[in-house]
């Protein structure tokens, strides 16, 4: 069973696992991309602010009202795979929530000479990821205060509650996918490997995620074809993220990612505490 993963995960380490869209020239008309609005009518690029799972990330400004946003640009469009398609499907379906990144729309910039660009425009989170925050403090010989860790985890939990109430499993919760705004907002991002549950499918059986943060039941789906999991796997991943916020890295981070897939399900659990 395939491990599809988000940014910094096995999907990047094994590029041959890409979706078939990436193997053939993409016909924009066939995919309905030509019907999407032209981003240049609304957005203007200011600067590059990072690199995402499937392309560069830019800061953009709205030509009409001057508001700022972030855009993920997939260029060329022939590289389109299931991650950007999944993220679009999740974001357009999901109602707004203070702890989930806002979605401003998908746009298509046609260029018949070099291939078109797909623009995914999202809320700008200028504060960076909580992983960057922790790493920066550690380089200065400091650690994140427990009160701040609690604040970040509380915001992430509210975001996860919103996802789960809408029958969505994030499946790649980690510090790099929790962003901060300059106003102190905590936002869940990166839904490229998220899964939507339905009334007839309340569990999933695809092994997805970044190994160090993956729950044992998710890893089991790679090894046992009759295994499945539900939204509680995100709670495990958030617990690992809590350790990451305190220590700077998740447990087993000095181990090869593939080896952790065998180690995590076999880690000894402490005996239950029996109340006296």
Topology:
Layout: H1 10-13, H2 28-31, E1 43-52, E2 55-62, E3 68-74, H3 82-93, E4 103-109, E5 117-122, E6 128-129, H4 130-139, H5 146-165, E7 168-169, E8 178-180, E9 186-188, E10 195-196, H6 216-223, H7 232-247, H8 257-263
Antiparallel strand pairs: 1-2, 2-3, 3-5, 4-5, 6-8, 7-10, 8-9
Characteristics:
10 strands; 2 domains; Phosphorylase Kinase, domain 1; 5-stranded antiparallel sheet; 18% strand; 276 residues; 29% helix
Alpha-beta classification: alpha+beta
As a percent range, the share of strand residues is 15-25%
Mean pLDDT: 78
Radius of gyration: 19 Å
- Low-confidence parts: 1-30, 197-207
Question: How helix-rich are the residues, as a percent range?
Answer: 25-40%
Shape: globular
Largest beta sheet: what is the strand line-up? 1-2-3-5-4
CATH superfamily of the largest domain: Transferase(Phosphotransferase) domain 1
Number of domains: 2
Major sheet size, sense and barrel closure: 5 strands, antiparallel
Order of helices and strands: HHEEEHEEEHHEEEEHHH
Number of separate strands: 10
Report the CATH architecture of the largest domain.
Orthogonal Bundle
Q: Name the CATH class of the largest domain.
A: Mainly Alpha
Q: What is the third-level CATH name, the topology of the largest domain?
A: Transferase(Phosphotransferase), domain 1
Number of helical regions: 8
**What distance separates the N and C termini?**
45 Å
